[in-house]
Design a protein that fits this description.
- With 369 residues, the protein is an alpha/beta fold.
- The protein has one domain: Nucleoside phosphorylase domain (Rossmann fold).
- It has helices at 3-42, 74-78, 90-103, 141-157, 213-221, 225-228, 259-271, 281-290, 315-338, 346-350, 359-362, and strands spanning 61-62, 67-68, 83-87, 126-129, 132-136, 164-173, 181-188, 195-200, 203-208, 232-239, 274-278, 295-304.
- It has a five-stranded mixed barrel with strand order 6-11-10-7-12, surrounded by four helices.
- Strand 8 (195-200) and strand 9 (203-208) form a beta hairpin.
- Bound molecules: uracil.
- The site of uracil (URA) has 9 residues, from strand 6 and strand 11.
Length: 369
Amino acid sequence: MCNKDLGKEICELKAMVKAQNKRIDMLIKHVKEGCAADEDKEKESTIQNLSPYLPCLCPDVLFHLNLDTATTAFPKVFGDVRFVCLGGTAHRMEAFAYFIMREIGLKLSTSAKLKDLSEDGHRYALFKVGPVLCASHGIGCPSISILLHELIKLVHHAKCQNPIFIRLGTCGGIGVEPGTVVITSEAIDGQLRAAHEVVVHGQAQLRPTQLDAELAEELKTLCKPGKDGFVAVVGKTLCANDFYEGQSRLDGAFCDYTPAKKLEFLQRLSELGVTNIEMESTAFAALTAQANIKSAVMCVAILNRLEGDQITTPLDTLHQWDMRPQMLVARYMRRVLYGDPPEETYECWCSLSKHDVPDEVRATTQECS
Ligand code: URA
């Protein structure tokens, strides 16, 4: 090759390198700008319809959770939350937090314990396990509604992206075998309205109580009756303001109706498509829907109300039934976090609570916070 040809080739190569460098610079710029745009997007929470007065609260004090935006960096502490699980008692939610920690493959160092982040508030308990927040809500709509106002503000201040809220609990079944998991399609109140009534300035406002139909169906499909030994059904839920007369029981301190009237009411509920009775679903459904939060209510029936009022099932059986909605929610979270398991490990995956966490689930293991 003569010097002239060599010079030409060098020239061409230089031009090519220059063009490629230019292209690389362009790509780097594009990636940087793209990431910056994504980061900007992530800066906003996905919660909607919030009070216009929230930005004026400096700090915002979440009184019943004993948290505030001045002393807690919400995005840092809670920004990774993807699931918010609610249940009645502090004890149940602490146990659930340890359970879900194992199920999603997280670990605490040997001597460490999960901390109740709201302990000093003496109202609700709040535990954080990686992307899962676990909170106790007490009994009834007023109690869960106060908690939800504060949890919704918490995920908003933390800039959480599309958090999913799930209430796990117990209920009285209507025409279902005790031990059945009932997933709510729509909550109705004591007057049989598909609404949550909020009285503002002396006027009653009715807020819709439809729950996410897709999520309810997905949770149902995660139950494998043949293997699990129980079934899950989707149906309407009566949300009562009382455990006794409000649920047509005969065994409260007071009762001014007959057993025939009680059965007539429960039959009417059944004809309306109601499959269970509990005490928080209207507030839970209405507040999460108002905030544009995907949510579900999953309760295990601890008796069939068509057959009686008193709960006589032994405590250890009740504890086993308590685990049923928790098992399904654990499968749901693992699916969301890690995807579906390989076919051949499906059975082990389903019954993870009884086994060690397999490697494929542990793939993205991190320390719990
Ligand atoms: N929770 C209720 O509200 N009612 C029942 O019958 C059982 C649990």
